[in-house]
Design goal:
Blueprint (H helix, E strand, L loop, with lengths): L6 E4 L4 H13 L3 E7 L5 H14 L7 E5 L2 H5 L29 H16 L3 E3 L15 H14 L6 E3 L7 H10 L22 H13 L15
Parallel strand pairs: 1-2, 1-4, 2-3, 4-5
């Protein structure tokens, strides 16, 4: 039985957030989708994916929230938002935090979701954070979400809103297989950091996605400028 409790899904338009939304749709009758425009270089293309995914899951237009947080572009410091920093080509796995990291971004995103949850009465917030990415992004670690949920409990009116991370322990191939299992519209997702016309195929995000599809033995349905093998 699906829960009648309204849930918010944070939907960037990427593959991880798509699968997160697919999982939430299995658990809840009613969903609200939140998307943030923060001055990212692929902002327009990500927004297109957001609306396509929202249509697929029949999310009402009044339950789709697009929030402008372009102050993150003003702050800069990331190749995703700063025009003075080029998006780098994938150079293999590394323990260093890449310059695609947007400083403290997920905290801003979740904060907006918590505020909206208090207004519309949602108690669950789904986010597609992946632990596999945490060597690069500190705000993708399970420990981060444990601390964030403690903060939310302390800082909200009723203290009963919780962030859910259903794909956090999955690898990219497992996420892709879960998408297939749940019949999620992978063709509507978009993961590239660099280009909005077609995925570049060589940035970190494209490389991890393409490698995931290779390892899963499944063809990625989106269009790429280049499709190198990363397996």
């Amino acid at each position: 039985m699906k829960s009648k409790e309204l849930a918010i899904c944070l939907v960037s338009g990427g593959m991880d957030s798509l699968v997160c939304a697919a999982i939430a749709s299995q658990k809840h009758e009613d969903l609200a989708f939140l998307h943030l425009n923060y001055g990212q270089k692929t902002e327009e293309r990500e927004l297109k994916s957001f609306h396509e995914i929202a249509e697929f899951y029949n999310v009402p237009k009044n339950m789709r929230k697009v929030v402008d947080v372009t102050f993150l572009k003003q702050i800069g410091g990331s190749s995703l938002t700063d025009d003075n920093i080029d998006v780098k080509k994938y150079k293999g796995d590394s323990e260093e935090i890449p310059d695609s990291y947007v400083p403290f971004r997920n905290t801003h995103i979740v904060s907006m979701a918590v505020s909206w949850a208090e207004v519309i009465g949602a108690k669950k917030i789904y986010i597609g954070a992946v632990h596999e990415d945490s060597s690069g992004y500190p705000d993708c670690r399970p420990s981060y979400y444990k601390a964030l949920n403690a903060l939310i409990k302390e800082g909200t009116k009723d203290g009963d809103i919780k962030v859910i991370t259903p794909v956090i322990e999955l690898t990219k191939p497992e996420i892709i297989k879960k998408a297939i299992e749940l019949k999620a519209p992978l063709k509507s997702s978009y993961s590239c950091y660099a280009r909005g016309d077609k995925a570049c195929g060589v940035c970190d995000s494209c490389a991890l996605r393409l490698r995931g599809f290779e390892l899963a033995g499944i063809e990625d349905p989106i269009e790429y400028d280049k499709r190198p093998s990363y397996n």
